[in-house]
Amino acid sequence: MSGSEMTIATEGHAPPARPARPGGAGGRRGGAPRLPARLRRLGLPYLLLLPAVLLELLVHLVPMLIGIMMSFKELTQFYIRDWGSAPWRGLENYRVSIDLNAPVGQDLLNSFLVTCAFSLLAVGLCWLLGTTAAIFMQEDFRGRGLLRAVFLTPYALPVYAAVITWAFMFQRDNGMVNHVLHDQLGLTGERPFWLLGGNSFAALAVVAVWKTWPFAFLIVMAALQNIPRELYEAASIDGAGIWQQIRKITLPSLRPINQVLVLVLFLWTFNDFNTPYLLFGEAAPASANLISVHIYQSSFVTWNFGTGSAMSVLLLLFLLVVTAAYLLATSRGRKTADV
């Protein structure tokens, strides 16, 4: 057959159609429809958060539920091997913990008041030092980068190494604190005990503020980068001094950050266990007996895990109430300021 005859023959016939894929137009075997792109886009964040949620359940929520269950039992050293067989006590552990006429309730109340005073003092000083340092670090001067690194050193050091070093510095006979205050400056009549008696509260506050204030400094310093410099330039042209600029521009701009920062610092400080335990050991002085150490003593020293668990639940409820009240108050204040 010639080329022209082949052309005429092929012009009269259409090419054969391709066989359809099994499963219809979607191209899915078994007829299963493809998930919409919107559903996949909405489900992807939850899928990425799933490992963190599972880890949170494993590390925090499951032990918390076990602790709540233990608070209703008479769990002592006799039932450590099989704590599930401990007798059911109901709310008796809670009644003993809040009974202010009994030694257990009185000790818990004293520890709670000490913790409140310590938290308010430490959080206030951390915020004040961090905010002040961050504000003055905004100006460009020689050595600013080095000074920032020095300020962040306490936050970068391991907690155990830093607190143990402070414990050695607070020693009465050979500590550096007494060497400077008593031997060199002569500010004290005799070498004071910093880890015993009433001075232990001051020692605890110093260590807590020293290791925590760089966090406030870091957060406030990052927040200050978002304040436009034009506001300060305009205020300077209008004749506003440095204190007026801080009061009228800096602090109002930092209000949303400070609301979160103060709450985080309060929760960290109120629950702090490492600092008092490393400074004073298992037997903390009464003036520095924070509630975290007190609960530890009630649980692992006296072996009364039921009462210790009840105290932990009461502490959790207190922090939840304080957090909810704080967030409610700050949200109302923010709405009022916006209006």
UniProtKB/TrEMBL annotation:
<feature type="transmembrane region" description="Helical">
    <location>
        <begin position="149"/>
        <end position="169"/>
    </location>
</feature>
<feature type="transmembrane region" description="Helical">
    <location>
        <begin position="112"/>
        <end position="137"/>
    </location>
</feature>
<dbReference type="InterPro" id="IPR035906">
    <property type="entry name" value="MetI-like_sf"/>
</dbReference>
<keyword id="KW-0812">Transmembrane</keyword>
<protein>
    <submittedName>
        <fullName>Multiple sugar transport system permease protein</fullName>
    </submittedName>
</protein>
<dbReference type="GO" id="GO:0005886">
    <property type="term" value="C:plasma membrane"/>
</dbReference>
<dbReference type="InterPro" id="IPR000515">
    <property type="entry name" value="MetI-like"/>
</dbReference>
<feature type="transmembrane region" description="Helical">
    <location>
        <begin position="201"/>
        <end position="224"/>
    </location>
</feature>
<feature type="transmembrane region" description="Helical">
    <location>
        <begin position="253"/>
        <end position="270"/>
    </location>
</feature>
<keyword id="KW-0472">Membrane</keyword>
<keyword id="KW-1003">Cell membrane</keyword>
<feature type="transmembrane region" description="Helical">
    <location>
        <begin position="44"/>
        <end position="72"/>
    </location>
</feature>
<keyword id="KW-1133">Transmembrane helix</keyword>
<feature type="region of interest" description="Disordered">
    <location>
        <begin position="1"/>
        <end position="31"/>
    </location>
</feature>
<keyword id="KW-0762">Sugar transport</keyword>
<feature type="transmembrane region" description="Helical">
    <location>
        <begin position="309"/>
        <end position="329"/>
    </location>
</feature>
<keyword id="KW-0813">Transport</keyword>
<comment type="similarity">
    <text>Belongs to the binding-protein-dependent transport system permease family.</text>
</comment>
<dbReference type="InterPro" id="IPR051393">
    <property type="entry name" value="ABC_transporter_permease"/>
</dbReference>
<dbReference type="GO" id="GO:0055085">
    <property type="term" value="P:transmembrane transport"/>
</dbReference>
<feature type="domain" description="ABC transmembrane type-1">
    <location>
        <begin position="112"/>
        <end position="326"/>
    </location>
</feature>
<dbReference type="Pfam" id="PF00528">
    <property type="entry name" value="BPD_transp_1"/>
</dbReference>
